Amino acid sequence: MEGLTDPLMRQILTQIATDLGRPYDWSVSEFIRVTQHVLPAHVFYKYVPELLTASKTASNTPIHVQLLGSDAQLMAENAAYAAELGAPAIDINFGCPAKTVNSHRGGSVLLDEPEVMYEIIHAVRRAVPDDIPVSAKIRLGYTDTSRMDDIRGAIEASGADWLTIHARTKTQGYKPPAYWDKILAFNSLPIPVIANGEIWQHSHAAQCMAQAGTQHLMLGRGAVTRPDLVARIDTPDIDDTRTLSWQALVPHQIAFLQGEAKNDTVLIGRYKQWLGMLSKGYPEAQTIWNDIKREKNKAAIIAALQNTLRAHGSLTMA
């Protein structure tokens, strides 16, 4: 999720999951665009600073390097270099629906060119050591699902180690519902299939796994909206000791505001984006959003968050 699950957000979300006793099996970086050359090390470190710490967050969650591009040779060369730098796995993005990405022949637009998908995955698989997995993320199609069989065939022939499927086409974007049952057609592949899309609570996860015929899930926007979602999914009858109250989440929000960014304006903008998403999972987020939506001073926003703690009379992890 470009511009959202950056290193700072990964650090916070993986720490919360670990503290709740259900760490993520791994997380994937924002996609790194591959266009004209092999990217220098500092670009990889910018997007994936975890490469400098054994490719893990502070909570010990592995971070896979995600690449996006359309030139098979360049993708292979960049994947090989990422592996040299310590990437534990390479993920290839064929799912991004952004117009600017698609107009430059990247992301989901390549779902209309399964032969190119095959060439990219196959080249990357050949370029990196055998012990480093290569995965792909797709949607069900670009404008429609008419090429699903061709896409499945390209994935099967490519040598991918697993496949993640967002259960909508590019045209469907993020509009509900997600068509989890369409994922079932990919289960003939001899590799694990990971389902994604519209998973906001435990019941959604259960329905998705049943309809898609897989026990593997990827969480995206739901994990940002409700940072304890992974623990809630893992335990159907979860008790309050393994969920995250607003009071417990506030210190993490303050840590986010105190994190690294180009400048405070950028950091505050990113925080407000997160707060807007949190309002779908926490009513308190809507209240504080009304208080700080026009605020441009970071210290004032932190003070407003601290005031919510005093109002609730608690600073403990619930």
From TrEMBL:
InterPro entries listed in its UniProt record: Aldolase_TIM, DUS-like_FMN-bd, DUS_fam, DusC, DusC_C, tRNA_hU_synthase_CS
Gene that this polypeptide is encoded by: dusC
Residues annotated as the enzyme's active site: 96
Domain DUS-like FMN-binding, residue spans: 1-276
Pfam families: Dus
HAMAP family reported in the protein's UniProt record: DusC_subfam
Gene3D superfamilies: Aldolase class I (3.20.20.70), Dihydrouridine synthase, C-terminal recognition domain (1.20.225.30)
Family under the similarity heading: Belongs to the dus family.
Keywords, comma-separated and alphabetical: Flavoprotein, FMN, NADP, Oxidoreductase, RNA-binding, tRNA processing, tRNA-binding
Binding site for FMN: 66, 137, 196-198, 220-221
Catalyzed reaction equations: 5,6-dihydrouridine(16) in tRNA + NAD(+) = uridine(16) in tRNA + NADH + H(+); 5,6-dihydrouridine(16) in tRNA + NADP(+) = uridine(16) in tRNA + NADPH + H(+)
Keyword Ligase: no
PANTHER family named in the record: TRNA-DIHYDROURIDINE SYNTHASE, TRNA-DIHYDROURIDINE(16) SYNTHASE
Name of the molecule in the record: tRNA-dihydrouridine(16) synthase
Enzyme Commission number(s) from the entry: 1.3.1.-
Site (Interacts with tRNA): 33, 93, 174, 270, 272, 293
Cofactor(s) the record lists: FMN
Purpose of the protein: Catalyzes the synthesis of 5,6-dihydrouridine (D), a modified base found in the D-loop of most tRNAs, via the reduction of the C5-C6 double bond in target uridines. Specifically modifies U16 in tRNAs.
